[in-house]
DNA sequence: CTGGGTGCAGTTTTT
DNA sequence: CTGCACCCAG
C-alpha cells in the first residue's frame, strides 16, 4: 500500500489549480505536531484555518488515522462548511496521486460548531437525558422563557423587585415599542424581563456558575437561583434544550458510560474513539466549551489543538472569554494535572495578507493601549506581526481622511473611491469595503456615504440596511394575518398599553394599501373571516381538506401559508430577497406555534379556536396572546435578516459591512468609518463581573474590571477592522472625532496617532 | 484644541 | 427621555 509522507502531501497540494499556498516552517510545525496539547497563537492573515485543515489532512492521509477519530470545531456554521469544503477539495486532489485515499471517507471527520456536534453526538449515542429533545433557536428560547419562567410572569411576585433593581443594566435600554428608555420607576415589562432572564440563564450554563453557592449567597441571588432551577425544570418537562444547555448536557454526557464509549470507541473504523480535537477561533470560546474540550482530550496524551488570535476576540456578548485563549496552558494544568510547560506553544505571526505598513500599524495600534500590555490581556510573550506579503510600494497604505464635518467627509471618501476607479488602482468597486458599526442607512451611519457614492454613479451593496420589520412584504403579511384573526382590532386595542397596537395598526395600513392592487388577496381575507364567523362558539376552527377527506383543525401556520399563496406574496416569492425575509417571518410563526403551553404536553398554540362568549370570533385569549407573545417578540427582539448561503459580492457595487460580518475576509482597500465611540462597559461586561464569585473555575490571572475589559474589547474590535486591508487602510473621521482621541485612534493620543498615519 | 449650547436620533454580533 | 455628535466661539 503506497503511503504518503507530509512532504509529498504538501507538494501535491501545491499543484492544485488556483491554490497558491506555500507552507512556511512555522506553519509546518503546526501541521507536523505529533501528540499532546498544542496552543497556536496566530495573527490575522497568517493562514491559520488553512493550517488547521492541513493538519487534519495530515492526520488522515499521512498518519492514517480513521477520519471518525478527529473532531474539528469552529465558531459559525459558515466557517464549518468552509473547512469541510476545503478538506474535501484537497483530499480529492491528493487521491489522484494516492488512489488508496479514495477509500477514505472524510465525511466521517466531525466538523461543525461545538453546539451542533454536541447535539448530534448525544442523539447518535442516545443519551437518555437527551431523547426526543428539541433544540430551541434564538426565537424559541425567549418565547419559552416568556411563557414559562417565573421571571417573566405576567404578575410577578414582589420578591422580584430587588432582583430587577440589581440587574437593572440587563433591563435597561431603548424600547422599540414606546420609543423610550426604560424608566426605572416602573417594574420592567414582561418582555424586558424575559430577555434579561434569557441572558442570565445562558450565563449560568456558559460560565458554569455554582447554583448552590448562589442560593447560599441569599438575597437576589437566591431568588434568581430558584428561578433558574424552575426554568431548567420546565425545559426538561417539555423536552426542550437551549443553546447554552446543550453544552451543559454534553459535558454531563461525557461522564456517562455512553460518553466513555464515544471517547474510547470499540476499535472499529466506525467507532474508533476520539483521538484528536482541533479547535479554530479559540479566542471566542466560553468557559463551558473550554471544559468540554478539556474533557474530550482527557485521555493521555491530550491531543487537543487550539488555534486563535486573542486580539480578534469579538464575541463576549455570546459569553465568550479571551481568558480561555490567553491562559490555555493553565487550563490544561488545572484539568489534567500536567505541567503548563508541556503545553506546546507555537506562533503564526507571519502576515501574508497586507502591505507591511498596514501590518505595522495593526501591531502598533494594539500595543499602544496600556491595558493591552498588562499581563493577562494578550497571549503571553506575543510578538509583533511579521509582514510577509508580496505587496510592496511606497504609496499611502495607512491613511486618515479627515474633514471638518460629515458631509465633507462623505464627499471626500466618494471622491477618493472615484479616483481609485478612474486611475485603475482598483478595477471594481467590490475591491473596496466600507466598515461601519451599523450599516443602517440613516444619517448617523451609512446614509451620507451611500448618497455621496450614489451621486458619483457608484452603487453600494448593503443587504442589511433596513430592519426586517420595516420591509413591505413583512408588514403586509402580518397585516393580512391580523385582518383575518382580529378584524375589529378588539384584542389589539386591549394590548395598547405596550404600544404593540401602533405596530399592528401600521401593518393593517400596509395591508390595505397592498390589497387595493391585489383584490384577490382581499377576497381571500374576507372569505377566511366569514368562515371563522360561521363557526359555533368554543370550537376548533376546521379547515376542509380535499373532497372526502376529513376536516382538520386550522392552524396559524396554515392560514399564513394560504395567505402567502395569493398575490402579491406569490409574485414576491420570485424575488430571492423577499423570499428569504418572508422565510424569517415563517420561522418566527412556527416558533410561536411550537412553543409548548405551560402544564400541557403538546403544543396546541397553533390551533385556532372560537370564542366561548362572542360567536364568530377567534378566542379573545388567543388573540391577546398572539399580540403579547408573538408580536411582542417581533418588536422586542426584531427579526433576524438571514444571510445568504454563499453571499458573493456583486462586482460592480461597493460593499458596506459591519466588523462582525467582515471577520475572516480581506479586501484590497478598506475604509473604516464611525470611529467616534468611546469604551463603555456593556451589560455583558457588567454581568461577567457580577457572577465572578460564583464561577467554579477561578480565573488563572487577575481579571480586569468591566471598564477595562470594555476598552480592551473596543481595541480588539478595530484591530479586526484594520487587519482586513490588503493594499490600503483608510480611516474616515471628522476633525472633532480625531480631537476626541477615541480608542479607534490608538491608546496614546493625537500626536502618537499622527506620527503613524498619513493625513489625507 | 477645548467648552458649552443645540438638536437629533436611538447598535451590533451568533449558537 | 437622554446622551452624544456636531459646530462654533474663544
Can you tell me about this structure?
Helices cover 46% and strands 10% of the residues. It is α/β, with parallel strands linked by helices and 760 residues long. The chain has a seven-stranded parallel β-sheet with strand order 13-16-12-17-18-11-19, with helices on both faces. Helix 17 (356-367) packs antiparallel against helix 30, helix 20 runs parallel beside helix 23 and helix 29 (683-690) packs across helix 30 (706-722). The chain is globular and about 80 Å long. The structure holds a DNA duplex (15 and 10 nucleotides).
In short:
The chain is of the alpha/beta class.
Sequence-ordered SSE layout with sheet pairings:
Elements: H1 6-14, H2 25-32, E1 38-42, H3 48-62, E2 70-74, H4 77-97, E3 110-113, H5 114-124, E4 134-135, H6 140-148, H7 161-166, H8 168-171, H9 190-206, H10 211-217, H11 219-237, E5 240-241, H12 243-254, H13 257-264, E6 276-279, H14 287-296, E7 304-308, H15 323-326, H16 328-336, E8 344-348, E9 350-351, H17 356-367, E10 386-387, E11 398-403, H18 406-422, E12 432-435, H19 447-454, E13 459-461, H20 472-485, H21 490-494, H22 500-515, H23 519-533, E14 542-543, E15 552-553, H24 556-564, H25 569-572, H26 576-594, H27 620-637, E16 653-657, H28 659-662, E17 667-672, H29 683-690, H30 706-722, E18 725-734, H31 735-739, H32 749-756, E19 758-759
Parallel strand pairs: 1-7, 1-8, 2-3, 2-6, 4-5, 6-7, 9-10, 11-18, 11-19, 12-16, 12-17, 13-16, 17-18
Antiparallel strand pairs: 14-15
Helix pairs in contact: 2-3, 3-4, 5-12, 6-9, 9-12, 10-11, 12-14, 14-16, 17-30, 18-19, 20-22, 20-23, 22-27, 29-30
The structure holds a DNA duplex (15 and 10 nucleotides).
